C-alpha cells in the first residue's frame, strides 16, 4: 500500500485540503472559502473558527470525492498565511479575531520602534525589514491597545499553529519559518531573541516553542478525528508558513536552488546555507522547513497585476492577445520604459510611496510598445532582484511557477533580461504550498529521508535559455530603468 499524505493550506481567502501520494502528486483537492473583515483604521482580520470549519467542510467533500484515499491518510501537514497574531487563553479559547498579514494598524508602533532603535537593529537580528505587518509589531499593538486582553493571553499563534492546535489539542509549537518572518527569531541562534523581546517590551513566555516544520507536533485527537472523518492518532507535523512551503513545492530544497513565482505578485527565492544580511535591506528571510538554511526572498509587488491593469487600460481581450500584440514590438520597446510600481514596491526599494511610470514616450509608440514595455518593466525589476541575490550566490537556472509562466514571450524576456535559464515545473502554482506542507509531514514520519529527497519528486518541464542574439538589445533599457527610481524618488514622495 502506498502512503497518502493530507495537507491543509490556510490561504488568504480560503482553505485548501489536498490528498497527496508519496510521489507528491495531487490526488484530489478542494477549497472552501471564508470572509476577511476590513476596517477603516487598517484592521484586517479573520475568525480562526472559520479556518477550522473550512477544514471540516473540506474533509466532508474529500470523503465524498475520494473516500478510499481518506481512509489511508498516514500523516497530516499544515501550512498557512504568515505574519499573523492570534491571542489564545490558557483554556485554548481565542480571545479575539486573528490579525492577518494585511493588517496595518501597527504602523505607529513600527515608526516608533524605527525611531528608537534605528532601521538596522531588527534587520541585523531577524533578517527582515521592520514593518507594521510583522507579528512583533502586531503583538505590541495588542499590548498597547487591548491591554486587558494581552494580559489574559497565554499564547500568540500563527494561522497554521491554530490548526495544529485544533488537530492535536496542543498549542505549544510554532516553526522557524513563521518565527523568522514575523520578526521574532534571531537568525543566528534560531531561537527567540530574549534581548530584543525585553527591549521592545514583549513577554517571551506568550509565544510557543520553535521547532522545525518537519517535526511531529502531536497526533490527531479523538475530537478532531470525529469532526474530520479521519482515524484518531494520525501524526500531525508542526507545519510551516506558506512562503517556506511553496519553496519546497516548487522543487527548491537545497542550497543553490532558486525559483521564480510569476503571479499577481512575483518573487524570486532561493535557499542559502546562511542568512544574507544585506546592508541595504533589499532582501528578506524565511527559514527553511527543516531548519538547515535560509530562504532568501526578493518580492516584486505588481507583476501579473501590471499585465491585468494594462489589459484593462488598453482594452486587450486575453493574455494570448496581449502576447501577440507585444511580440510585434521590438526588444526594448523603442525606448519606452515602464516602472511597475502600481502599488508601491518591495524589493529592492521597499518604498510604499513608489509610483508606476511610463517613461520615454514619443509619437512613434503604439499600443504594442506599451504592452511590451509592461512585460519588460517587470523583467527589469526581477533582474534587479536577481542581481542582489547574485552578490551572494551564483544563479544560472531558476524553476518557474505561476500564471505568468504560461506566456512564452514573457518567459523569454525574463530569461534574456535576467540572463538565466528558466525551468518549468509540472505543478499548478497554487498547489506548491500544499506540496511543501505534505513533504514536511512525509519527512516527519520517515517517508522521505529529507526535504531534498521529497523535492526530487517534483517533476521538471521544458527549459528556456537566454537568447544571446537578443540580450544586447536590453542593455541600455536596463540601465535607464535602473536610473529612473533614484531620479524620481523625491518627486514620488511629494504630496499629490
Estimate the global geometry from the Cα principal axes.
Answer: globular
Low-pLDDT parts are none
Number of strands: 25
Question: Which strand order spans the largest sheet, edge to edge or round the barrel?
Answer: 19-20-18-17-23-24-25
Summarize this, please?
This protein is of the alpha+beta class. It contains 18 helices and 25 strands.
Could you characterize the architecture of this molecule?
It is a single chain. The protein is an alpha+beta fold. The strands form eight sheets. A seven-stranded mixed beta sheet has the order 19-20-18-17-23-24-25. It has a five-stranded mixed beta sheet with strand order 3-2-1-6-16, with helices on both faces. A three-stranded antiparallel beta sheet has the order 4-5-8. Helix 15 (408-418) links the parallel strand 23 and strand 24. The longest helix is centred in the last third of the chain and has 24 residues, at 367-390.
Write the layout of secondary structure elements.
Elements lengths: L3 E7 L3 E8 L4 E8 L3 E2 L5 E3 L1 H18 L1 H4 L2 E8 L5 E3 L9 E2 L7 H11 L1 H8 L8 H11 L1 H6 L2 E3 L1 H10 L4 E3 H6 L3 E2 L4 E2 L1 H7 L8 E3 L4 E4 L2 H7 L6 E3 L2 E2 H8 L8 E5 L3 E7 L11 E4 L6 E7 L3 H10 L5 H8 L10 E3 L17 E3 L7 H24 L6 E5 L6 H11 L2 E5 L6 H13 L6 H5 L4 E5 L10 H18 L4
Parallel strand pairs: 1-6, 6-16, 10-13, 17-23, 23-24
Antiparallel strand pairs: 1-2, 2-3, 4-5, 5-8, 7-9, 11-12, 14-15, 17-18, 18-20, 19-20, 21-22, 24-25
Helix pairs in contact: 11-16, 12-14, 13-14, 14-15
Key features of this structure:
496 residues, alpha+beta, 5-stranded mixed beta sheet, 25 strands
Amino acid at each position: 500500500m502506498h502512503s497518502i499524505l493530507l495537507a491543509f493550506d490556510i490561504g488568504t481567502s480560503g482553505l485548501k485540503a489536498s490528498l497527496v501520494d508519496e510521489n507528491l502528486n495531487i490526488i484530489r483537492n478542494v477549497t472552501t472559502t471564508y470572509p476577511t473583515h476590513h476596517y477603516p483604521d487598517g484592521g484586517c482580520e479573520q475568525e480562526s473558527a472559520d479556518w477550522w470549519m473550512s477544514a471540516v467542510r473540506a474533509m466532508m467533500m474529500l470523503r465524498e470525492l475520494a473516500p478510499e484515499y481518506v481512509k489511508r491518510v498516514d500523516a497530516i501537514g499544515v501550512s498557512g498565511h504568515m505574519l499573523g497574531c492570534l491571542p489564545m487563553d490558557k483554556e485554548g479559547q481565542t480571545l479575539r479575531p486573528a490579525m492577518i498579514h494585511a493588517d496595518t494598524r501597527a504602523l505607529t508602533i513600527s515608526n516608533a520602534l524605527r525611531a528608537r532603535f534605528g532601521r538596522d537593529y531588527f534587520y541585523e537580528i531577524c533578517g527582515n525589514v521592520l514593518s507594521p505587518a510583522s507579528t512583533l509589531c502586531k503583538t505590541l499593538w495588542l499590548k498597547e491597545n487591548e491591554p486587558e486582553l494581552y494580559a489574559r493571553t497565554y499564547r500568540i499563534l500563527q494561522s497554521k499553529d491554530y490548526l495544529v492546535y485544533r488537530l492535536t489539542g496542543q498549542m505549544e509549537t510554532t516553526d522557524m519559518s513563521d518565527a523568522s518572518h514575523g520578526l521574532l527569531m534571531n537568525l543566528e541562534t534560531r531561537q527567540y531573541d530574549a534581548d530584543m523581546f525585553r527591549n521592545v517590551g514583549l513577554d517571551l513566555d506568550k509565544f510557543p516553542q520553535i521547532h522545525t516544520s518537519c517535526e511531529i507536533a502531536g497526533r490527531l485527537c479523538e475530537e478532531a478525528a470525529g469532526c474530520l472523518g479521519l482515524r484518531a492518532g494520525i501524526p500531525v507535523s508542526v507545519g510551516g508558513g506558506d512562503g517556506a512551503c511553496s519553496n519546497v513545492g516548487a522543487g527548491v530544497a537545497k542550497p543553490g536552488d532558486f525559483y521564480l513565482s510569476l503571479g499577481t505578485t512575483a518573487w524570486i527565492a532561493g535557499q542559502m546555507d546562511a542568512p544574507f544580511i544585506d546592508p541595504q535591506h533589499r532582501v528578506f528571510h524565511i527559514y527553511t522547513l527543516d531548519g538547515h538554511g535560509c530562504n532568501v526572498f526578493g518580492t516584486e509587488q505588481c507583476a501579473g497585476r501590471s499585465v491585468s491593469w494594462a489589459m484593462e487600460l488598453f482594452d486587450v481581450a486575453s493574455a494570448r492577445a496581449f502576447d501577440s500584440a507585444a511580440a510585434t514590438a521590438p526588444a526594448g520597446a523603442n525606448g519606452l520604459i515602464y516602472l511597475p510600481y502600481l502599488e508601491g514596491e518591495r524589493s529592492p526599494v521597499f518604498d510604499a510611496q513608489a509610483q508606476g511610470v511610463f517613461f520615454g514616450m514619443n509619437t512613434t509608440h503604439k499600443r504594442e510598445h506599451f504592452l511590451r514595455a509592461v512585460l519588460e518593466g517587470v523583467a527589469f525589476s526581477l533582474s534587479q532582484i536577481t542581481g542582489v541575490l547574485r552578490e551572494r550566490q551564483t544563479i544560472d537556472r531558476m524553476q518557474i511557477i505561476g500564471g505568468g509562466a504560461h506566456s512564452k514571450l514573457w518567459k523569454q524576456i525574463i530569461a534574456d533580461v535576467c540572463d538565466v535559464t528558466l525551468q518549468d515545473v509540472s505543478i499548478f502554482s497554487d498547489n506548491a504550498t500544499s506540496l511543501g506542507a505534505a513533504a514536511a509531514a512525509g519527512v516527519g514520519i520517515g517517508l522521505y529521508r529529507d526535504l531534498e529527497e521529497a523535492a526530487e519528486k517534483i517533476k521538471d518541464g521544458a527549459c528556456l535559455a537566454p537568447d544571446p542574439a537578443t540580450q544586447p538589445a536590453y542593455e541600455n533599457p536596463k540601465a535607464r530603468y535602473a536610473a529612473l527610481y533614484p531620479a524620481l524618488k523625491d518627486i514620488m514622495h511629494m504630496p499629490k
